[in-house]
Each structure stands twice: as structure tokens, then as C-alpha cells.
Automatic annotation (TrEMBL):
Regions annotated as coiled coil: none
Keywords from the named record: 4Fe-4S, Iron, Iron-sulfur, Lyase, Membrane, Metal-binding, Nucleotide-binding, S-adenosyl-L-methionine, Transmembrane, Transmembrane helix, tRNA processing
GO molecular function: 4 iron, 4 sulfur cluster binding; FMN binding; metal ion binding; tRNA-4-demethylwyosine synthase activity
Pathway: tRNA modification; wybutosine-tRNA(Phe) biosynthesis
Protein name, entry field: S-adenosyl-L-methionine-dependent tRNA 4-demethylwyosine synthase TYW1
Source species taxonomy: Eukaryota, Metazoa, Chordata, Craniata, Vertebrata
Length: 732
């Protein structure tokens, strides 16, 4: 046997292993790798179990040797409230809103726009992430208030300057509430709308729909501007709470169909911040329109509206355009219907709306008004109270012989067409340019006016100082001053009301604001007709009276011309406001020649306290000596007139036409009995038998004349001086 062969046979298994060694190595490597992977999985599972079994603070302590506090996400670091106010209303709202924000445990800052520099500070609101609220009022001619003028000017320029761009305020969150008066329809809440638009154009994000407060209690959605603000504030606070939690709460724009609110249906479908911002930027790039007034920037979705980033087939484009046009027509028809109902003064049931709303009733009642029906009122004059006690009468007593304790101050129309800065009723009454309310009958108005007046007189029975004979006389109304508030001549049945007064032998003193020339021409004879001439130029009249009519100046001039055609006693009533209308003597003289009044009353403005509707202060009240000097200079320019009477206590003087000076005596007083005879003859003749102012004049007593030592105070009465009276700072 060959030994080599035996050796080979014995070593054949080893030879097989040697030949297949690479497969063996591969098997070992795979096994080791598998073992390593299994070990890693096991260790990872053990680590996860360990982490889940210990709290976060324990893990930090084990790993780092200290405990780290968990960081809390802050979505709203605070709120900044900016206000632009002329009379203090917006500032007051800012304070109220700040209190509501503080209740959410959020920092809040109230900032006067007058003290804010948008050029340096506005960009900081982007990085600061505060929610910025703007409470801005609209003043004369749709302009911003003085405190917000620079801010609005800068913001408007920035929104139109390409150097700022449409992303300048990207990331800034804001809300706007405007304060205005819908009676000025052409620029109602114009400043609020503009601020909202300009911020949006610069890339800021509106967090809640713009609010619009309306001073006109008749048209206000909630009855008053305060109620409008409270409603908007509730919406804003709700949205702010959602933002605090990191939610993106959608608000309903009021355009949902068939009672289905899209914002509620899709409220849980929140959009990512980046996606929303891209949509907004794309929307700004593709459209230059003003943002919707009644919807927030988040309202992009909807079943009937394509997303701005979605693709639309050309074939479907026509259908979409038809649908949009149809919606636009429906909206315009609805707005036209609403506008028609408002202009007609009717609700959808066809009934006239009451002028006195619940909010207005509450406000006027607090001021001492006795309200009558749906649009009238009566109030007891302080001079009536004074004469009941024998402490002197008003200037009408001195100038015309009115018995102040027998005078009823009332109005058949609380509405007015002006918003004068010196309105002594603080603009709580409604405004309008035409009658659009429910109409009460004149018989009812007069009956209740007299009853309410008598009831107020009765309250003085037994009051110390009240004279018994004057109390009895006061129960019988002899004079009616239609000058309480508003514009009496707006009342469609004013002639019937005057006729009823004269039938009761009550004299009539009617005051109008020179904005209704046609009504003046159609007015039947009154005892004395007044026209308020508060300024002598178009600019100053607009500034002082703030009329609603666009053609106010032409109406003013036409009213004076209509006054000149009247045969009965006519009066210009001039109210002097220092620094506003006391330097227009020549212009006043020209107006006198236009209307040719019988008398001109010149009175210093009366300051009735701080008002949210006026910027008038005691600094605007002229001293009596200043009023006298004005009258002396005015008389030099109107040769047919002279100074006749003076009532120092009312800061008032009377200029009379020389035809009332017979010989050396003035006859400015009124023979009231003779007037009643003349007006009765006029009515009996159907208006053919007319009469003039000189037919019922009476001699003026010496104590009432200008220059008399009594200075217009009736010597039959006793002048009462208040004890410890502080020194006056004006002539009032």
C-alpha cells in the first residue's frame, strides 16, 4: 500500500475544511453581527424602560447632576393698546380693555399715539410678538384726531412706499376698533378702516374683525357706542384666550349660507403658520383691494371658495366667475334693501322706528328729561326754578319780558342736524338730516309736555324760598321755548304744534340751526323766531357746528335769506367761543345785512362740564367785558342797529334794530296778549291777515337797558350769591 495515499485519505476532512474556509469565515462573521444587533436592541429596550420609569427631573439629575426646568411655550407675551382720542372716549375704552386683558394674566400697556413714534418703534412690534390693539376715532371730515394725526400719516405713507414692501410688518398681530358717527355717512369710521387697511397692506396679521362703534344711538348696532365696544371687546378677549393656548380660532364673517357656519364646521382644521403666511403674502401680491371689513385674515377657506394656491381648470373658471357675480348681486340687493329701510325710517315690518332707543332714554332720563312719546321731551329750566324763588329770571325776561317761572322748555324733536362743540346736552340726542322716525301726534306731545312740566313744578311746593304766588302762576304755562335740544323745525307737524300752542294762549319761541331753509319758509308765524349764527365763515361754521349736510354753508345762507322774508320778530343768536369765532366781525356784519334780523343776541359760550363729544374747555369762555367789547365793535359795522339790553349774569347782550327805538325809548319787550289777538285773527282769516313785529312790541323797562346799574337784573327779585364761591376763571 502506498503511504502517500493513506496519508491523503486521513487528511481529507481537513482538506475539505481548508478548501471551504471562506464560507466558514462568512458564517462566523454573520453570527457575530447578528449577536451584536440583538444586544443593541436589548440594551435600547432596557434604556427606554428605564427612562419611562423615572421622571424627567430624575433623569436630568442622574445625567447632568442638576435639574432643568421644562420650558413653557408663550404664544402671547402681552398686549399693547394704542389709542387716538380727541374727547377721551377712545382713552376710556383703552382703560376698560386693559382691565379685561389683565384678567387673563397678560401684561398690558396703554399708549397714546401722540407719544408714539412709528418710524422707530412699530417694527419692534413684529419681533416682540405682542398683540397690538388700535382704538382710533374719526373726527371732522373723516380726519384722524390730533393725537393720531402723525401716526396715520406715517402709516399711510409707509403702506404706499415700495421701500417698505408688503412684508414690513409680517409677524405683527393687530386688531382695530374705530369710533365714529354714522350720521356722517361719507366718512363713517374712516380712520379705523384706513388704519386696518394700511396695517394689512404692510403684512400685519389681523387677529379679529375690525369693530365699529357708532355714536348715533339710533343706528348703532347695539344701541350706543359703549355697547358696540363691549360687544367687540368680548369677541377680542375670546380670540385672545385662544391665542394664549396656541389655538388659531376662526371667526365667522357673517356670510355663511343656510345657517351653516363654516368657521364652526372647520374650526378643528387648523392651518400651519407657515402655510397661512404664504397664503396671506400670495393674496397681497395678487390683489390690491382693501381687506374685508367684516372678516379676519384667517377666513380663506370654504366650500364655495377656492384656495388662493389651488389650481383651477380654465373650463371651471367661467362657472366660478358666474358664482362670484351672483353672490355680489345678492349682497348689493340686500344692502340696498337695508339702506332703503333705514332711509325710510322703517323696519322690515313696515313700522316706523322710535327715535328714543332704550339706551338714549336711559341717558336723557339721567339728565333730568321727561321724555314724551317716541321723539319729544321736556325739562325744567334752572331759570324757572330761580324765578319761582324770586332770585331773578333769564335773559329773555330782561330782553323780552318773558316770565321765566311760567316758561316751558320743550322740543317735539330730539334729533338735530349739527353736533356743535358747545352742545349743552353733550350730544346724547340723535342726529339726522331728515325725518325718518315714527311720528307722534302734536296733540299728544303738547298735552304730555304740559302735564310733565306741571308735575315738575309741583315738586317745588313747600320748598324754602319758593314764593306762593309764583308757584300758582307757574302751574299755568304762558311761554314755550322750543329750544331744549335738537331741531324742532324737523318735526313734520311743527305748524300744527305751534297752532295748538297759540290756541292755549302760549307764546312760542322757536330756535333753528339754519340748516332747513325750506322749513323756515313754510313756517307759520311764531312769537319770535331764532336762527343760531355760531360762525360767520364756512370754515369756522364747519369747525364749530360740525353739520351733517355737505351743502351746509349754502343751507346756512338760504336760511338767513328765508328769515329776512318773515314779518314777525326774528333774532340772530350768536354764541361766542374764544379763539374760534370772536375775530370775524366784518363777516358777521355781512351776515346781518343778509338776514336783516330784528334783534341780535350775543352770548358767551356756556361751559357745561367735560364732555366726551367736545373739546370745549373753560379757556374758550369769554369774559363779560370781552363780550361787551365784541358787541361795541360789531355795532360800529352795522349802522341800523344799537345795543339795547344787557343781562350780565348770562353773559349776554341784545343788539336791536333802530325801528324798535321810539324817540329815546327802546321797545324790545313783547305785548303777549296783543300777539295772541293777532295770531287769532291770522288763523281766522286763513292766513290772509298778516301782522308785523312792531304790531305787538312793548316798552322796555329802564333796569333792562344797557348801561343801567342793575346790569339786567330785575329789581323786583333778590340776587342770590353762593357762599364760599370760588373765584371764577372765566367770564361765565
Amino acid at each position: 500500500m502506498d503511504p502517500s495515499v493513506d496519508t491523503w485519505d486521513l487528511s481529507s476532512p481537513l482538506l475539505s475544511l481548508w478548501i471551504n474556509r471562506f464560507y466558514i469565515y462568512l458564517g462566523f462573521a454573520f453570527s457575530i453581527s447578528l449577536w451584536i444587533c440583538v444586544q443593541m436592541v436589548i440594551k435600547k429596550q432596557d434604556r427606554n424602560i428605564q427612562e419611562n420609569s423615572f421622571p424627567k427631573t430624575t433623569q436630568d439629575l442622574m445625567r447632568n447632576g442638576y435639574v432643568s426646568l421644562q420650558k413653557k411655550d408663550i404664544f402671547v407675551p402681552g398686549v399693547k393698546i394704542f389709542y387716538g382720542s380727541q374727547t377721551g372716549t377712545a382713552k376710556g375704552f383703552a382703560t376698560v380693555l386693559a382691565e379685561a386683558v389683565v384678567s387673563l394674566d397678560l401684561p398690558v400697556a396703554i399708549i397714546n399715539l401722540k407719544e408714539y413714534d412709528p418710524d422707530d418703534c412699530l417694527i419692534e412690534e413684529v419681533t416682540g410678538k405682542h398683540v397690538c390693539v388700535f382704538l382710533v376715532a374719526t373726527y371732522t371730515d373723516g380726519r384722524p384726531t390730533e393725537s393720531a394725526e402723525w401716526f396715520c400719516s406715517w402709516l399711510e405713507d409707509a403702506s404706499r412706499d415700495f421701500r417698505f414692501g408688503k412684508t414690513y410688518l409680517k409677524g405683527m398681530r393687530y386688531a382695530v376698533f374705530g369710533l365714529g358717527n354714522s350720521a356722517y355717512a361719507s366718512h363713517f369710521n374712516k380712520v379705523g378702516k384706513n388704519v386696518d387697511k394700511w396695517l394689512w397692506m404692510l403684512g400685519a396679521h389681523r387677529v379679529v374683525s375690525r369693530g365699529e362703534g357708532d355714536c348715533d344711538v339710533v343706528k348703532s348696532k347695539h344701541g350706543s357706542i359703549e355697547a358696540d365696544f363691549r360687544a367687540w371687546k368680548a369677541t377680542f378677549i375670546s380670540q385672545l384666550q385662544a391665542l394664549q393656548k396656541g389655538e388659531r380660532k376662526k371667526s365667522c364673517g357673517g356670510h355663511c349660507k343656510k345657517g351653516k357656519c363654516k368657521s364652526q364646521q372647520h374650526g378643528s382644521e387648523e392651518r400651519e403658520e407657515g402655510s397661512l403666511e404664504q397664503d396671506e403674502l400670495h393674496h397681497r401680491d395678487t390683489e390690491e383691494e382693501e381687506p374685508s371689513e367684516d372678516s379676519s385674515e384667517e377666513e380663506f377657506g370654504g366650500e364655495d371658495q377656492q384656495s388662493v394656491n389651488s389650481i383651477v381648470d380654465v373650463e371651471d373658471l367661467g362657472k366660478i366667475m358666474d358664482h362670484m357675480k351672483k353672490e355680489k348681486r345678492e349682497k348689493e340687493q340686500q344692502e340696498a334693501k337695508t339702506s332703503l329701510l333705514v332711509n325710510m325710517g322703517r323696519n322690515e315690518d313696515g313700522e316706523g322706528r322710535a327715535m328714543i332707543t332704550p339706551a338714549l332714554r336711559e341717558a336723557l332720563t339721567k339728565q333730568g328729561y321727561q321724555l314724551i312719546g317716541s321723539h319729544s321731551g321736556v325739562k325744567l329750566c334752572r331759570w324757572t326754578k330761580s324765578m319761582l324763588r324770586g332770585r331773578g329770571g333769564c335773559y329773555k325776561h330782561t330782553f323780552y319780558g318773558i316770565e321765566s317761572h311760567r316758561c316751558m322748555e320743550t322740543t317735539p324733536s330730539l334729533a338735530c342736524a349739527n353736533k356743535c362743540v358747545f352742545c349743552w346736552r353733550h350730544h346724547t340726542n340723535p342726529v339726522g338730516t331728515a325725518w325718518r322716525w315714527k311720528l307722534d301726534q302734536p296733540e299728544m306731545i303738547l298735552k304730555e309736555a304740559i302735564e310733565n312740566h306741571q308735575n315738575m313744578i309741583k315738586q317745588f311746593k313747600g320748598v324754602p324760598g319758593v314764593k306762593a304766588e309764583r308757584f300758582e302762576e307757574g302751574m299755568a304755562v304762558k311761554h314755550c321755548a322750543l329750544s331744549l335740544v335738537g331741531e324742532p323745525i324737523m318735526y313734520p307737524e311743527i305748524n300744527s304744534f305751534l297752532k295748538l300752542l297759540h290756541q292755549r294762549r302760549i307764546s312760542s319761541f322757536l330756535v333753528t340751526n339754519a340748516q332747513f331753509p325750506a322749513e323756515i319758509r313754510n313756517l307759520k308765524p311764531v312769537t319770535q323766531l331764532y336762527v343760531s349764527v355760531d360762525a360767520s365763515t364756512k370754515e369756522s361754521l364747519k369747525k364749530i357746528d360740525r353739520p351733517l349736510f355737505k351743502d351746509f354753508w349754502q343751507r346756512f345762507l338760504d336760511s338767513l335769506k328765508a328769515l329776512a322774508a318773515k314779518q314777525q320778530r326774528t333774532v340772530y343768536r350768536l354764541t361766542l367761543v374764544k379763539a374760534w369765532n370772536v375775530d370775524e366781525l366784518q363777516a358777521y356784519a355781512q351776515l346781518v345785512s343778509l338776514g336783516n334780523p330784528d334783534f341780535i343776541e350775543v352770548k358767551g359760550v356756556t361751559y357745561c362740564g367735560e364732555s366726551s363729544a367736545s373739546s370745549l374747555t373753560m379757556a374758550h369762555v369769554p369774559w363779560h367785558e370781552e363780550v361787551v367789547q365784541f358787541v361795541l365793535e360789531l355795532v360800529d359795522l352795522i349802522p341800523d342797529y344799537e345795543i339795547a339790553c344787557e343781562h350780565e349774569h348770562s353773559n349776554c347782550l341784545l343788539i336791536a334794530h333802530k325801528k324798535f327805538k321810539i324817540g329815546s325809548e327802546w321797545w324790545t319787550w313783547i305785548d303777549y296778549n296783543r300777539f295772541q289777538e293777532l295770531i287769532q285773527e291770522y288763523e281766522d282769516s286763513g292766513g290772509s291777515k298778516t301782522f308785523s313785529a312792531k304790531d305787538y312790541m312793548a316798552r322796555t323797562p329802564h333796569w333792562a337797558l344797557f348801561g343801567a346799574s342793575e346790569r339786567g337784573f330785575d329789581p323786583k327779585d333778590t340776587r342770590h350769591q353762593r357762599k364760599n364761591k370760588s373765584k371764577a376763571i372765566s367770564g361765565c
